[in-house]
């Protein structure tokens, strides 16, 4: 005999009492009768159960009614639940009994047929008050339904579980017009804490109730009594300190540089104003600059990338930081201005990421700009702006192009984007890449990293390029080089990483397929023409933090991530180790420009010296337990090299 699944075995029982028809109101008699029915049903003997049902004496129908003092006020139902919980009262079935039996609803509610109620605490069946004898075929069918209801009751329990719908208190809205800058509430945050935790590890620990008040309207002070900062919530400083300590563990080279130069204070007297992403990794850089003697004031280069708890930790440590996640455009420029414009403090060094800070100082504070001793820029967008100023003869200070240094191009741009592109897309869309058609605009180092990751997961990748050399590299790497117009109707994902403007226009967006994902891996938000989507005929619907559905009148929707801003730092995080390489390069560039003798660097844009690139790389090799081979004197003479480097000429392409 096959034991029935999900049914606990019956406790040992003596010989069942005989049904006493002469005592219809006997509780013991009724309970014994039902126990017999239950035992037969568990044994799978449908025909025997059916026989018991058919032989049920009409005189027992009175037993089904409750005592007079317990009769409900409502009218009796045509069908009465009859059950025999082994430890319960007679007739104690229905939803209450099912709750005691493990939360199962009666079978009649689960669509199990025959009205049988099943649960671990007991079995039951539904009987009419007057029992006419049905036909044999109908009897067998009813018995089969009862047995099936018991057998699959666990499935019914699952399928009938109430569905809990997740509600975003403020995000579930449609946008027909972009909110005004003044007083605009951040569209980047997720009101639901569960959503924030699920989709962004860079999310803040802020209580959502604080989102109603702009940080500009708050009066906050740190433990030292200073209010020279503006962050989301200074109370998050403890959480931010933990994030910074975790980042330090994988930034050993930068920490090593801090320890080596801390005694010499090579940046003593330096007043650095910075505009970068404010994350745990950049916090390690900022604190390193402070440890080397610099005074720092900082703002964010991206309105969505700031980790609020990290900004709070920096403010608690005494750094004048003005940034929070979800700034408006007006907030963005206000924060930059607060960093630059302070009575009794004037910057003499700039560390920029994107060129916005440099542009602001050049336009708004020309006298301050002329006294800057050096600019360090790490993005392709910012470098382009510097070269434009230099070409026009308006660059009156020396600048260091960190973006094109080997340690930035070949590591941050390539390896960082190779991992973070997938992280950002997965967190925001949960998309599966196998078989998806993806077009990547640009095959520089960022594009190469993105394409390598997407190809490894089985995506079909197309490339758009303007440079024949990069296009040939893409072809040799196995990608098809196309024009965007040729594939825009069929691709599932569009990724821009060119540093240019209007790479994806409104015309392209109009022709995209339904549910196409559009995102940007370049620094600036100009690559996707998001402004053209702020029109009355299109509806904006916020579905997740950093995820908007732009809905066309015909119902087609395009999934826009981070409103066209940098995907990885807006929607996820980036690998700490590779940022250590970039941060160390930036720190050395600042030290070099600040301590360089007058005349070494003119009013132009310079690349990082090759020797410095090699030094940054050597600081990170111990993390891999790597051991370099040393040249012999004869070998060094043969190659015409110094044994200690540099080992490649400046024109060498790695």
UniProtKB/TrEMBL annotation:
<dbReference type="GO" id="GO:0051592">
    <property type="term" value="P:response to calcium ion"/>
</dbReference>
<dbReference type="GO" id="GO:0030234">
    <property type="term" value="F:enzyme regulator activity"/>
</dbReference>
<dbReference type="GO" id="GO:0038166">
    <property type="term" value="P:angiotensin-activated signaling pathway"/>
</dbReference>
<feature type="compositionally biased region" description="Low complexity">
    <location>
        <begin position="66"/>
        <end position="78"/>
    </location>
</feature>
<dbReference type="GO" id="GO:1990456">
    <property type="term" value="P:mitochondrion-endoplasmic reticulum membrane tethering"/>
</dbReference>
<dbReference type="GO" id="GO:0044233">
    <property type="term" value="C:mitochondria-associated endoplasmic reticulum membrane contact site"/>
</dbReference>
<dbReference type="GO" id="GO:0033353">
    <property type="term" value="P:S-adenosylmethionine cycle"/>
</dbReference>
<dbReference type="InterPro" id="IPR000043">
    <property type="entry name" value="Adenosylhomocysteinase-like"/>
</dbReference>
<dbReference type="InterPro" id="IPR036291">
    <property type="entry name" value="NAD(P)-bd_dom_sf"/>
</dbReference>
<dbReference type="GO" id="GO:0042045">
    <property type="term" value="P:epithelial fluid transport"/>
</dbReference>
<feature type="compositionally biased region" description="Low complexity">
    <location>
        <begin position="188"/>
        <end position="207"/>
    </location>
</feature>
<dbReference type="GO" id="GO:0005829">
    <property type="term" value="C:cytosol"/>
</dbReference>
<dbReference type="GO" id="GO:0010765">
    <property type="term" value="P:positive regulation of sodium ion transport"/>
</dbReference>
<comment type="similarity">
    <text>Belongs to the adenosylhomocysteinase family.</text>
</comment>
<keyword id="KW-0554">One-carbon metabolism</keyword>
<keyword id="KW-0520">NAD</keyword>
<protein>
    <submittedName>
        <fullName>Adenosylhomocysteinase like 1</fullName>
    </submittedName>
</protein>
<dbReference type="InterPro" id="IPR020082">
    <property type="entry name" value="S-Ado-L-homoCys_hydrolase_CS"/>
</dbReference>
<feature type="compositionally biased region" description="Low complexity">
    <location>
        <begin position="96"/>
        <end position="109"/>
    </location>
</feature>
<feature type="domain" description="S-adenosyl-L-homocysteine hydrolase NAD binding">
    <location>
        <begin position="413"/>
        <end position="574"/>
    </location>
</feature>
<dbReference type="GO" id="GO:0042802">
    <property type="term" value="F:identical protein binding"/>
</dbReference>
<feature type="region of interest" description="Disordered">
    <location>
        <begin position="66"/>
        <end position="135"/>
    </location>
</feature>
<dbReference type="Pfam" id="PF05221">
    <property type="entry name" value="AdoHcyase"/>
</dbReference>
<dbReference type="GO" id="GO:0044070">
    <property type="term" value="P:regulation of monoatomic anion transport"/>
</dbReference>
<dbReference type="Pfam" id="PF00670">
    <property type="entry name" value="AdoHcyase_NAD"/>
</dbReference>
<dbReference type="InterPro" id="IPR015878">
    <property type="entry name" value="Ado_hCys_hydrolase_NAD-bd"/>
</dbReference>
<dbReference type="GO" id="GO:0006730">
    <property type="term" value="P:one-carbon metabolic process"/>
</dbReference>
<feature type="region of interest" description="Disordered">
    <location>
        <begin position="177"/>
        <end position="227"/>
    </location>
</feature>
<dbReference type="GO" id="GO:0006915">
    <property type="term" value="P:apoptotic process"/>
</dbReference>
<dbReference type="GO" id="GO:0006611">
    <property type="term" value="P:protein export from nucleus"/>
</dbReference>
<dbReference type="InterPro" id="IPR042172">
    <property type="entry name" value="Adenosylhomocyst_ase-like_sf"/>
</dbReference>
<dbReference type="GO" id="GO:0031440">
    <property type="term" value="P:regulation of mRNA 3'-end processing"/>
</dbReference>
């Amino acid at each position: 005999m096959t034991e029935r699944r999900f049914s606990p075995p019956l406790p040992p029982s003596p010989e069942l009492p005989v049904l006493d028809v002469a005592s219809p109101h006997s509780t013991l008699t009724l309970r014994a009768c039902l126990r017999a029915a239950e035992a037969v049903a568990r044994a799978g003997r449908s025909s025997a159960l059916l026989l018991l049902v058919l032989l049920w004496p009409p005189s027992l129908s009175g037993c089904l009614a409750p005592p007079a003092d317990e009769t409900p006020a409502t009218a009796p139902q045509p069908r009465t639940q009859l059950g025999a919980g082994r430890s319960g009262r007679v007739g104690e079935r229905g939803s209450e009994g099912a709750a005691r039996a493990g939360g199962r609803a009666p079978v009649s509610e689960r669509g199990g047929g025959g009205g049988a109620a099943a649960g671990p605490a007991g079995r039951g069946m539904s009987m009419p008050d007057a029992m006419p004898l049905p036909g044999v075929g109908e009897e067998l069918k009813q018995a089969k339904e009862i047995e099936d209801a018991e057998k699959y009751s666990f499935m019914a329990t699952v399928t009938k579980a109430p569905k809990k719908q997740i509600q975003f208190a403020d995000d579930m809205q449609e946008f027909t017009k972009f909110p005004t800058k003044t007083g605009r509430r951040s569209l980047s945050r997720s009101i639901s804490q569960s959503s924030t935790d699920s989709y962004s590890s860079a999310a803040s620990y802020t209580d959502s109730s604080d989102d109603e008040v702009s940080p500009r309207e708050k009066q906050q002070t740190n433990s030292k009594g200073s209010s020279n900062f503006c962050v989301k919530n200074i109370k998050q400083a403890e959480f931010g300190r933990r994030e910074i300590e975790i980042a330090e563990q994988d930034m050993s080279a930068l920490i090593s540089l801090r320890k080596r130069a801390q005694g010499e204070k090579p940046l003593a007297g330096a007043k650095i104003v910075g505009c970068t992403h404010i994350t745990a990794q950049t916090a390690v850089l900022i604190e390193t600059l402070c440890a080397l003697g610099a005074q720092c004031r900082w703002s964010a280069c991206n309105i969505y990338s700031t980790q609020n708890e990290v900004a709070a930790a920096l403010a608690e440590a005494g750094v004048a930081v003005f940034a929070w996640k979800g700034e408006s455009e007006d907030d963005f420029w206000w924060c930059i201005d607060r960093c630059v414009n302070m009575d009794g403090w004037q910057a003499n060094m700039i560390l920029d990421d994107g060129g916005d800070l440099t542009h602001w100082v050049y336009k708004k504070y020309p006298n301050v700009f002329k006294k800057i001793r050096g600019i360090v820029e790490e993005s392709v967008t910012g470098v382009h702006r510097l070269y434009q100023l230099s070409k026009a003869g308006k660059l009156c200070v020396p600048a260091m192009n960190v973006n094109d240094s080997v340690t930035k191009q070949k590591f941050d741009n390539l390896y960082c984007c190779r991992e973070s592109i997938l992280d950002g897309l997965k967190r925001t869309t949960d998309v599966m890449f196998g078989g998806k058609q993806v077009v990547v605009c640009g095959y520089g180092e960022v594009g190469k990293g993105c394409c390598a990751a997407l190809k490894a997961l089985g995506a079909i990748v197309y490339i758009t390029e303007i440079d024949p050399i990069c296009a040939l590299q893409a072809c040799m790497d196995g990608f098809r080089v196309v024009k965007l117009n040729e594939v825009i109707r069929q691709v599932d994902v569009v990724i821009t990483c060119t540093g240019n403007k209007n790479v994806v226009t409104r015309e392209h967006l109009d022709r995209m397929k339904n549910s196409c994902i559009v995102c940007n891996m370049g620094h600036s938000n100009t690559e996707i023409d998001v402004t053209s989507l702020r029109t009355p005929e299109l509806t904006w619907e916020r579905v997740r933090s950093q995820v908007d559905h732009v809905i066309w009148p015909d119902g087609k929707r395009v999934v826009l991530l981070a409103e066209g801003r940098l995907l990885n730092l807006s929607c996820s995080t980036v690998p700490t180790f590779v940022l250590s390489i970039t941060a160390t390069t930036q720190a050395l560039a600042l030290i070099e420009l600040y301590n360089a003798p007058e005349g070494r660097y003119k009013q132009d844009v310079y690349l990082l010296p090759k020797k410095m690139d090699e030094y940054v790389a050597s600081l990170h090799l111990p993390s891999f337990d790597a051991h370099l081979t040393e040249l012999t004197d004869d070998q060094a003479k043969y190659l015409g090299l110094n044994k200690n480097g540099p080992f490649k000429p400046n024109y060498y392409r790695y």
